[in-house]
């Protein structure tokens, strides 16, 4: 079993990359660091400063480096006897157009190969089973009236565009768009329209993915033709001048664009606490587990990682089953710890096949060493004067937690 005696936490982002890390390796060696404890290194939303808003666990974040760099660094660390403990985030991914799995779901709905990956109810009553997209600054009626929502073409697909965010349109909307231009569609466009119904009949996800992709490649090729391009531009102009058409197209998607504040009292996807920009995964599904961890497993086989740190273990539907699967996949020699904040008196389940927590409970004890207990009475008196509240700390904690549940998590 790998046992990291001394670890050093690294927070990777665009301003601290693999190149920057390489420069401090000699310094870390002199410090006696035995294990690097790294923040998520997989692709995250552009500009992410922490990496916990991942968009692709099968790719190294290009803002911090490449796989080749990682492998070279790994070789150097092994030569120095320094191991690597990697932070992974199985509970959630970024609810963001840059997330290719989610983008595929927003475009294809239940026909997407990733439809089962995200914790959303396809048959729920809220918004008729559509996925909420709580990213509008106002109700959708106001957004459309103000001209803030547009239909656009971003190769190879049509999208709804709201400022810098774009959301893919489902195939049925292409008919409305391609028939909206001035005059009759030319033969090439008409041939595309004739394909739509045949493609829609496909219920098998992989087949639907392939036929839709081929259709979109044909559309992208047509856009490069000057005559067809002019017609398609007239289609988009006609659509964007008609607020009723914009609303019709918005309403026929597999998602429902809503004001971000709606999630306080109505929500139909599982998120990370109250963060709308993080959508949770069905990691209890074995296929989802295997697909998500595929690249992590490859890097472990290449001896890049000797340990794993699991972010937000309590967010998972079945933490015990997840850890059993992870241990089986990672092997007995892999050091595994979980992020779990133990309250005083709370124990870690002894049947979890892990080495422990990341140490928040230990940190709380260490912090008490630096607390001047003799000042308790004076500080308590000052606090009560400041907040004008005589409730006990226990009661205040209870009331504030209840408020979060009722208000922020009311949905």
Architecture blueprint of SSEs:
Elements: E1 7-10, H1 18-31, E2 35-38, E3 42-44, E4 54-60, H2 67-80, E5 83-88, E6 92-94, H3 100-108, E7 131-136, H4 140-145, E8 149-154, E9 157-162, E10 165-168, H5 172-178, H6 187-200, H7 205-223, H8 226-240, H9 243-251, E11 255-259, E12 271-272, E13 275-280, H10 286-292, H11 294-301, E14 307-310, H12 319-330, E15 335-338, E16 356-357, H13 360-369, H14 376-387, H15 393-408
Parallel strand pairs: 1-2, 2-5, 5-14, 7-11, 14-15, 15-16
Antiparallel strand pairs: 3-4, 6-13, 8-9, 9-10, 12-13
Helix pairs in contact: 1-2, 5-6, 6-7
Structure write-up:
The protein contains 15 helices and 16 strands. With 411 residues, the protein is α/β, with parallel strands linked by helices. 42% of the residues lie in helices and 18% in strands. The strands form five sheets. Strands 1-2-5-14-15-16 form a six-stranded parallel sheet, covered by helices on one side. A three-stranded antiparallel sheet has the order 6-13-12, with no helix packed on it. A three-stranded antiparallel sheet has the order 8-9-10. The chain folds into three domains: 7-91 and 281-369, Alpha-Beta Barrel (TIM Barrel), CATH 3.20.20; 100-272, 2-Layer Sandwich (Maltooligosyl trehalose synthase, domain 2), CATH 3.30.1590; 376-408, no CATH class. The relative contact order is 0.12. The longest helix has 19 residues, at 205-223. Strand 8 and strand 9 (157-162) form a beta hairpin.
- CATH fold description of the largest domain: TIM Barrel
Helical fraction equals 40-55%
**How do the strands of the widest beta sheet line up side by side?**
1-2-5-14-15-16
CATH class of the largest domain: Alpha Beta
Q: Would you tell me the overall average pLDDT?
A: 94
What is the fourth-level CATH superfamily of the largest domain?
Glycosidases
Rough outline: globular
DSSP helical segment count: 15
In whole angstroms, the N-to-C terminal distance is: 44 Å
Instruction: Give the strand tally.
Output: 16
Rg calculated over all Cα atoms = 26 Å
Going by CATH, the architecture of the largest domain would be Alpha-Beta Barrel
